[in-house]
Structure to design on (436 residues):
């Protein structure tokens, strides 16, 4: 019987085509508006590395001076060079990496290509395995290159294709900031969203094309493309070496633990480290260490702001307005068929069967509206992508969002159809038959 009612619902779309088109379009517009906002929120609030997000941590130490103009309870988001190197040498972790942003002119050595400005990061070799970076060819540089800061590099697939064409870039040389680097690996397209590994001092939507050994960047005194916080007592020594010896925080740091349960052990290590450093006259303030996993780090950096959440709620408010309009249109459509309902009731159809028929008819409207709404969602995201490259990076609709859009449309149409269907069930057969 339900299949028969569904068939009747499909046929009913041809009745009052203008009214039906208005209902479908109204529902589709509401679904598209809400799903477009929800898609962006979903991407930015999702887990970018779910297989190990509970084992990757950002440590923070509070090395701010005891007396400062605007004291904060939050420790600096980054580490000093001294602390980062101490962690690299002794931290009880499986893998660890320091990270700074770098930039420079890249010369492919080809006469037909002029040098181009490129963005990159300086990291330790553990970076690639820590964050499950996929390689198209080659791999990370060796431990010896990592330790001595060799002139080696990992580059993105897009850069490799642009510079070397179809040829394999591994083993080839390119010139970056006036120095020759040998390519050890080419990264396949890798764009985790949110861009959790570098949330400070960089655009969270632009992905780097050049990866160099951290010690190489230090040896060549590459400028950090990011935040440098020198909220310290006294003057900072001039020059790059002065920055490295200072209490300025400018290095992002990540550690990977063997198990999420090792968090307490690492937190104890941080406390012990700061306690020892206090004996050397550092860390004047009370213990105030922090240790964030990936999702905690995203929340702490407020990647999904209140504005994004408000925009999503407003979009769903617009969907609610659309539902009110659909309810009115369904009432008009079902009221126009009061005579048909009266005849069915007079022939013995119980109210529950009338309720099923017309609720399924409302569901058919939701199915059609959902399909159109999904198409409109893709269109809206495409238009938004053309206006903003950042939004283009986020505008990814996966099967979860497709299912959500379709389910939302169907649920919305059924909800909108409850009142009109209930009203249709109240039709009194005797009154309708007398009026015919």
């Amino acid at each position: 019987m339900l299949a028969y009612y569904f068939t009747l619902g499909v046929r009913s779309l041809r009745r009052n085509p203008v009214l039906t088109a208005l209902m479908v379009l109204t529902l589709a517009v509401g679904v598209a508006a809400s799903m477009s906002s929800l898609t962006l929120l979903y991407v930015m609030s999702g887990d970018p590395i779910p297989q190990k997000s509970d084992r990757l941590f950002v440590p923070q130490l509070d090395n701010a001076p005891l007396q400062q103009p605007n004291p904060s309870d939050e420790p600096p988001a980054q580490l000093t060079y001294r602390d980062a190197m101490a962690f690299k040498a002794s931290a009880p972790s499986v893998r660890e990496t320091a990270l700074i942003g770098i930039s420079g002119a890249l010369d492919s050595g080809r006469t037909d290509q002029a040098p181009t400005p490129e963005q990159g990061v300086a990291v330790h070799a553990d970076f690639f395995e820590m964050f499950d970076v996929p390689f198209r060819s080659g791999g990370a540089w060796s431990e010896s290159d990592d330790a001595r800061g060799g002139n080696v590099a990992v580059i993105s697939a897009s850069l490799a294709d642009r510079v070397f064409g179809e040829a394999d870039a591994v083993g080839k040389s390119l010139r970056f900031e006036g120095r020759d680097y040998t390519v050890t690996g080419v990264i396949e397209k890798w764009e985790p969203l949110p861009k959790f590994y570098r949330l400070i001092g960089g655009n969270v939507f632009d992905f780097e094309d050049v990866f160099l050994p951290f010690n190489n960047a230090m040896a060549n005194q590459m400028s950090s493309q990011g935040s440098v916080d020198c909220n310290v007592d006294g003057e900072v020594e001039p020059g790059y070496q002065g920055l490295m010896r200072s209490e300025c925080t400018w290095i992002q740091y990540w550690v990977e633990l063997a198990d999420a349960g090792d968090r307490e052990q690492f937190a104890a290590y941080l406390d012990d480290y700061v306690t020892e450093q206090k004996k050397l006259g550092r860390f004047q303030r009370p213990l105030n260490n922090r240790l964030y996993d990936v999702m905690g780090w995203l929340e702490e950096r407020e990647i999904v702001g209140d504005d994004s959440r408000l925009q999503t709620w407003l979009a769903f408010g617009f969907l609610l307005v659309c539902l009110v309009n659909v309810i009115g249109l369904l009432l008009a459509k079902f009221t126009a068929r009061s005579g048909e309902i009266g005849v069915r009731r007079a022939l013995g159809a119980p109210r529950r069967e009338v309720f099923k028929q017309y609720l399924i008819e409302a569901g058919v409207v939701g199915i059609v509206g959902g399909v159109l709404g999904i198409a409109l969602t893709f269109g809206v995201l495409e238009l938004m992508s053309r206006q903003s490259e950042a939004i283009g990076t986020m505008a990814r609709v996966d099967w979860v969002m497709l299912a959500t859009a379709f389910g939302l449309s169907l649920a919305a149409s059924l909800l909108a159809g409850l009142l009109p269907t209930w009203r249709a069930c109240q039709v009194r057969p005797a009154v309708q038959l007398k009026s015919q």
